[in-house]
Automatic annotation (TrEMBL):
<dbReference type="GO" id="GO:0003677">
    <property type="term" value="F:DNA binding"/>
</dbReference>
<dbReference type="InterPro" id="IPR036390">
    <property type="entry name" value="WH_DNA-bd_sf"/>
</dbReference>
<dbReference type="InterPro" id="IPR036388">
    <property type="entry name" value="WH-like_DNA-bd_sf"/>
</dbReference>
<protein>
    <submittedName>
        <fullName>IclR family transcriptional regulator</fullName>
    </submittedName>
</protein>
<keyword id="KW-0804">Transcription</keyword>
<dbReference type="InterPro" id="IPR005471">
    <property type="entry name" value="Tscrpt_reg_IclR_N"/>
</dbReference>
<keyword id="KW-0238">DNA-binding</keyword>
<dbReference type="InterPro" id="IPR029016">
    <property type="entry name" value="GAF-like_dom_sf"/>
</dbReference>
<dbReference type="InterPro" id="IPR050707">
    <property type="entry name" value="HTH_MetabolicPath_Reg"/>
</dbReference>
<dbReference type="InterPro" id="IPR014757">
    <property type="entry name" value="Tscrpt_reg_IclR_C"/>
</dbReference>
<dbReference type="InterPro" id="IPR011991">
    <property type="entry name" value="ArsR-like_HTH"/>
</dbReference>
<dbReference type="GO" id="GO:0003700">
    <property type="term" value="F:DNA-binding transcription factor activity"/>
</dbReference>
<feature type="domain" description="IclR-ED">
    <location>
        <begin position="68"/>
        <end position="252"/>
    </location>
</feature>
<dbReference type="Pfam" id="PF01614">
    <property type="entry name" value="IclR_C"/>
</dbReference>
<keyword id="KW-0805">Transcription regulation</keyword>
<dbReference type="GO" id="GO:0045892">
    <property type="term" value="P:negative regulation of DNA-templated transcription"/>
</dbReference>
<feature type="domain" description="HTH iclR-type">
    <location>
        <begin position="8"/>
        <end position="67"/>
    </location>
</feature>
Length: 253
């Protein structure tokens, strides 16, 4: 994520408070002050201002995020041109596969989940709309990395801080580049328990005729169901068909 050259401290404090309320689900002034390292008075001033603008609410002394953020999220997602068609296809993927399906885009070197859909047998995960993840250990992330312009990809890989979430996670640049080459050859990316052990993901990028990447979609399920012919052929074919429909609609945007 890019760093501001001349950050405004007051804005930073308010955003830190928003992060604290998001992470805790709600906090009192004393807790907020402790978490961001300011006095109770300073924390209260920021909270009061955010409350006045509708960004936080005060419930018996406990501050929580306000519903105004839902309005902001609505406007933020509307800048994604393919949102409606992509979510329609992701819903269809979830129904057809019975698993969890996702639509993800890349922003500032991270994968941002914009839509999830649950099939009848979908596993429950921590993934939600707005969930952020590094690109190197997810199917959607690797799908986008593999097909983005080489200069952009190289810069993102150079800036990555690899972390082993499971024993299967890629943790070095050379291994990642080798896998990305394989993804470019087959057009499909896999996550074999690299984020959560026992959970398998299959993904593919969404591109226009010029190769511009609009995002990626994936299907996620437990390895006991995501194996053999289903993993190698059936699930990838479902995803390819969905991507094809979305990409055809891109031409009319």
């Amino acid at each position: 994520m890019p760093e501001a050259k001349n950050p405004v401290q007051a804005v930073q404090r308010s955003l830190e408070i928003v992060d604290v309320l998001r992470d805790t689900g709600g906090a009192r002034v004393t807790e907020v002050a402790r978490e961001i390292g300011v006095s109770k008075g300073t924390a209260h001033c920021h909270l009061a201002t955010l409350e006045e603008r509708g960004y936080v609410v005060n419930e018996s002394g406990e501050y929580k995020l306000g519903l105004r953020f839902i309005d902001l999220a609505h406007h933020a997602k509307n800048r994604i041109d393919i949102y409606d068609i992509a979510t329609t296809e992701v819903d269809a993927l979830a129904e057809e596969s019975g698993e969890m399906a996702l639509f993800t885009v890349e922003e500032d070197g991270e994968g941002i989940c914009l839509h999830t859909a649950q099939g009848e047998e979908a596993v429950q995960t921590e993934i939600y709309v707005g969930y952020r993840n590094a690109l190197y250990h997810t199917a959607v992330g690797k799908a986008m990395l593999a097909f983005m312009p080489a200069k952009e990809r190289d810069q993102l890989i150079q800036d990555m801080e690899f972390e082993a979430f499971t024993p299967n996670t890629i943790t070095d640049e050379e291994a990642l580049r080798t896998e990305l080459e394989t993804i470019r050859e087959r057009g499909i990316a896999y996550n074999h328990g690299e984020t959560i052990q026992g959970l398998v993901g299959v993904g593919a990028p969404i591109r226009d005729q010029d190769g511009t990447i609009y995002g990626a979609i994936s299907i996620i399920g437990p390895e006991r169901r995501m194996d053999g012919e289903r993993l190698e052929t059936e699930i990838p074919e479902m995803i390819r068909q969905a991507v094809n429909i979305i990409e055809i609609n891109i031409t009319s945007l």
